[in-house]
Specification:
12 helices; 7-stranded parallel sheet; globular; 9-stranded antiparallel sheet; TIM Barrel; single chain
Length: 404
């Protein structure tokens, strides 16, 4: 039996083996099963959930608020590539949590365990291993890149994000490896609840600032060509520090053509909501290699309350993906998942239908960074049975697409 982990009023973390651990799936309290847990992986971090009393199992097997005075619930923030299986169990408050993906934590066999399973290959996990980032040589690399590119505004945005937010894709441009961000758009055609780069205090402060200019083709192309020819393998429009890159589709298409006029190496990718069809068609026709389409649900009843889009529907997203696939563009879903929502019967069935209808190549599972109670409050009442995140992962694999 997994045991309770809690934090005292000073933020120090302890276990209490007299009480069992309790997690949540959606709004329902559950005891964690061994198949939903792994030892706390390298790069994960523990956080205190302020003013939230942890739920616990007492000696009689009852779910109770943990009675220790001043005790607070504890959660883990997972490295990229790990799929959260359950939420931490606690008593909600009116105060919103910051925009992170909170996983449950418990104690077993003299160690910390977390509600997660790997959802990526070992090679992918190694690419995003936190120890690879924020290294001692980062400052000297920043000086080197500034000397190399001069007053490139995109580079300065990436340096800001690398230093202030520890953004991995921003840092990759400096390290010149793997996938690097290439932000181009200050505008968006959606108003996602909890957008990480827009709102001031609508629900909670955005954790990062949005790019406030539209760069030139030359600024973007010189960074992209150097990255793709000297160690990196991917550049991506559509980062957390920008809006929807398809709203700058003419610029993006010109950048694609400029880069491909100098090198055929590497991949040019766009992270997008795929809602602006004319823009999507423009970048596809320009020769973009891949699209990573953000999706929290394949059903409008859940999609619309979260994205709150201005000028498109989920049908437009489907149309855009189909067009990209008809031109042999590699399309992956950036599936934003929440235990107790994404793994219900009706959601899993709709997702499998969506995969078949659109012909996407891959599903990348990403833990939705939002207060679970805020998210649940947006959505209609769920009806289907909770299958579990592991069964969701297995169902996607059985559909014949790769996962990350």
């Amino acid at each position: 039996m997994f045991k309770l982990v809690y934090a005292d009023e000073h933020g120090h973390v302890f276990e209490d083996t007299a009480y069992g651990a309790v997690m949540r799936t959606g709004g329902m309290l559950v005891e964690p099963e061994r198949e939903d847990m792994i030892p706390l992986p390298p790069g994960a971090s523990l956080v205190v959930l302020p003013e939230r009393a942890a739920a616990a199992v007492d000696r009689r097997g009852r779910f109770v608020p943990y009675p220790r005075t001043g005790a607070q619930a504890v959660a883990a923030l997972l490295p990229q590539g790990y799929l959260r299986t359950l939420l931490p169990g606690y008593r909600p408050t009116k105060e919103m949590l910051p925009l992170f993906g909170y996983a449950g934590v418990a104690w077993l066999d003299n160690g910390l365990w977390v509600t997660a399973i790997p959802a990526a290959t070992s090679a992918d996990l190694q690419r995003w291993e936190p120890s690879r980032f924020n290294t001692p040589d980062l400052a000297s690399l920043i000086a080197t890149r500034r000397q190399e590119f001069g007053r490139n505004r995109i580079l300065e945005q990436l340096i800001y994000c690398a230093q202030n937010y520890g953004c991995f894709t921003a840092q990759n441009m400096l390290y010149r490896r793997f996938e690097a961000g290439l932000p181009i758009s200050p505008r968006c055609n959606a108003n996602c609840v909890g957008c990480i780069s827009l709102q001031v205090s609508e629900c909670c402060p955005a954790p990062q600032a949005r790019i406030n200019f539209v760069p030139t083709v030359a600024e973007a192309a010189e960074l992209a060509v150097k990255h793709l020819t000297e160690g990196g393998d991917t550049v991506s429009f559509g980062q957390g520090c920008e809006g929807e890159p398809l709203l700058e589709s003419k610029l993006a298409a010109e950048i694609v053509r400029a880069v491909r006029g100098q090198t055929k190496r590497g991949r040019i990718n766009m992270n997008t909501n795929a809602g602006y069809f004319d823009g999507l068609r423009a970048v596809v026709d320009a020769g973009i290699d891949s699209l990573r389409v953000s999706l929290n649900s394949p059903r409008p009843a859940l999609y619309d309350p979260y994205y709150r889009q201005h000028s498109y529907s989920l049908d437009d997203v489907v149309r855009g993906i189909k067009y990209a696939r008809s031109r042999n563009v590699f399309v992956s879903l950036n599936l934003l998942v929440m235990p107790g929502v994404s793994d219900r019967e009706e959601e899993v069935a709709a997702l499998l239908l969506f995969i078949r209808e659109t012909g996407v190549n891959q599903v990348q599972f990403r833990n939705l960074n939002i207060d679970p109670d805020l998210y649940l409050g947006l959505l209609p009442q769920a009806t289907g049975r909770v299958l579990g995140m592991r069964r969701l992962l297995d169902a996607v694999l059985s559909a014949g697409v790769s996962v990350r």
